Amino acid sequence: MRLLVLVIVVLAVMAGAAMAYQCPRLIGQLNAAVAPMDPNDPKVKQGKELVEEAQRLHEGGSHAEAVVKADEVAEVLGVRLDKV
Fold first, then answer.
1. Could you tell me the residue range of the domain that residue 44 belongs to?
2. Mind listing the pLDDT tens digit for each residue in 19-42?
3. Does 83 map to a domain?
4. Has residue 53 been placed in a domain?
5. Measured between alpha carbons, how far is 52 from 66 in angstroms, rounded to an integer?
């Protein structure tokens, strides 16, 4: 039983670390995608705000939420994210 609990804890820590790594990568992809877009387009403005929110979530340690927010931004902007 102890081994099972230990395995679950280790997997949870590893998953959190993987999410923490993925956030900046996705945010970088979104920033690169939005750079050539028309800054006056309402969808681009919304996308930039959502990217900033994803960044704040990441910095606050809410990595899973940041990844979900990045997916939301990609949908708004119509871009495809390259996930690991």
1. 2-77
2. 556 889 999 999 999 999 999 999
3. no
4. yes
5. 10
pTM of the shown model: 0.75
pLDDT tens, residue by residue, 6-21: 455 544 544 444 455 6
pLDDT at 65 exceeding the cut of 50:
yes
In whole angstroms, give the CA distance from residue 56 to residue 9. 26
Residue 53 neighbours by CB distance under 10 Å: 16
Q: What is the pLDDT of residue 1?
A: 73
Task: Supply the DSSP symbol for 41.
Answer: S
70 occurs within a structural domain:
yes
* C-beta contacts of 50-59 below 8 A and 24+ residues apart: 50/76, 51/27, 54/23, 54/26, 54/27, 54/30, 55/27, 57/23, 58/20, 58/23, 58/24, 58/27
Task: Say if CB 76 and CB 50 are below 8 A apart.
Answer: yes
Give a yes or no: residue 67 inside a domain. Answer: yes
